[in-house]
Amino acid sequence: MSIIVNLDVMLATRKMSSKDLAEKIGITPANLSILKSGKAKAIRFSTLEAICKELDCQPADILAFSSDESAGI
């Protein structure tokens, strides 16, 4: 089972760079990259809220669940 991070899709849809989003929500580009790659072990609700507010989306637009064991590898 795994969580799929679709942040890159939302950034492309909103025509925003990772660097711009990181600046607007107050995290480092490196931490945003870790989140985008799916390598993050956790995300703070405050960070998720800031991302959703900035991208005008819902958490489900960014995060998805897959029961496929090979998903996200």
Features:
globular; mainly alpha; 2 strands
How would you sum up this structure, described in words?
The chain is mostly helical and 73 residues long. Helix content is 53%, strand content 11%. The protein has helices at 7-13, 18-25, 29-37, 45-55, 59-62; strands at 2-5, 63-66.
Q: State the secondary-structure class.
A: mainly alpha
What's the overall average pLDDT, rounded? 92
Strand elements, count: 2
Number of helices: 5
Order of helices and strands: EHHHHHE
List the helices and strands and how they pair.
Layout: E1 2-5, H1 7-13, H2 18-25, H3 29-37, H4 45-55, H5 59-62, E2 63-66
Antiparallel strand pairs: 1-2
Outline:
This protein is mostly helical and 73 residues long. It has helices at 7-13, 18-25, 29-37, 45-55, 59-62, and strands at 2-5, 63-66.
